Amino acid sequence: YQVQVDEISPFVTKLNNVVLYSGIVAAVLAIVLAIFLSNYLLKPVKALTRASGQLSSGDLSTRVKVKGNDELTELANTFNQMAASLETAEERKKALTADVAHELRTPIAVQKAQLEGMLDGVIPVTNENLQTALHQTDFLSRMVDDLRLLAMAEAGEIQFDERETDLRRLIEQLISQFSSQLSGDGTTLVTDFRGFEENPSVYIDPDRFTQILHNLLSNAQRYGKKGGVISVFCVREPSNVVIAVKDDGPG
């Protein structure tokens, strides 16, 4: 039996239509699937872009939702950590500004009252009164120097002159100088050294270290109880030296 061309033409036509329709359906499904996948994949990217814009505009509380366990999730976690670090830094900056304003207000007010009183003739111009005004000026000068040092530290511009130093002797010298400031309010300063019998030397910048310890002692005096106790602990461990300043204040 021989098949004529006219007999198979409808079949071929139907087959062509099926192939054409199948191709159209496959193309539509591919486009829909591509749109769905692109939206699914670009959604976290768009969220990160939107959050980055909010962060750059000053909204440091911006966070992105984290889902999954892929590279985009890791990127989102990194973004959230960066935003949290920036928010913490901003909070510390605001707290520092408030603390500095509070610390500067008192000596400025005292100095202003002293000078105005001298100009008005209410307070006599004596060496004692001038010395009080000078003391407040020195305090303000130290505050400005501390702020400058802090700015240099944040910018990474502090230069250290590290050298071998007898740490125990350095601390004892500083405490001896500081004890004279405590004699007026009855505060007792005690020390506790451990592990410095054989090798008291460490490799540090003695000037910077003295500045740090002096600030800690000053804070302990300022916020500790009058007539209380300030303790300085210095313990040498196998690979570290631990130094602690403790007072009996509210902090």
What attributes does this structure have?
single chain, two-stranded antiparallel sheet, 5 helices, 66% helix, 251 residues, mainly alpha
Question: What structural category characterises the helix and strand content?
Answer: mainly alpha
Distance between the termini: 107 Å
**What overall geometry do the principal axes of the alpha carbons give?**
elongated
Unreliable parts: none
The main β sheet shows up as: 3 strands, mixed
Question: Count the helices. How many?
Answer: 5
Give me the count of strands.
5
Give your account of this protein's structure:
With 251 residues, this protein is mostly helical. It has 5 helices and 5 strands. It has helices at 5-56, 71-120, 127-155, 167-182, 206-223; strands at residues 163-166, 188-194, 201-204, 229-236, 241-246. Strand 4 and strand 5 (241-246) form a beta hairpin. Helix 1 packs parallel to helix 2 (71-120), helix 2 runs antiparallel to helix 3 and helix 4 packs parallel to helix 5. It is elongated and about 125 Å long. The mean pLDDT is 80.
The gist of it:
The protein is mainly alpha-helical and 251 residues long. The protein has helices at residues 5-56, 71-120, 127-155, 167-182, 206-223; strands at residues 163-166, 188-194, 201-204, 229-236, 241-246.
